[in-house]
Design goal:
Order of helices and strands: HHHH
Strand content: under 5%
Distance between the termini: 13 Å
Number of helices: 4
Shape: globular
Helix content: over 70%
Number of domains: 1
Structural class: mainly alpha
Number of strands: 0
Length: 114
Amino acid sequence: MNNLFQIAPWFILIYGLVVLLGGVMGYVKAKSQVSLLAGVGSGIALIVAWFVSRQTPVVGLGLATLIAFILFVVFVIRFFRTRSFMPAGLMMVFSLAATVVFLLGLLGTGSLLA
């Protein structure tokens, strides 16, 4: 197992909290109920993935990878629609990084390669 396998679950927690707080900030700043629901829902799902990854790393990292990839696609669409780096571009980059870290952590479990 590699170091990324050990770091990835903690990155799930950090990413989940950022997504959750981003949804709250979207509501506070723009009164966007969609941002609130999507951010809080995705953030909670990522925190659940973090809890799962503590017991069953393959399942937790797989769930986090899926959520991060979906959020990446959503933020790519939002970025090209708004052409604004904040917040869509920043979250697009962060979601891509999260997807890569989670996927590499998942590959580090060795269970996908065997």
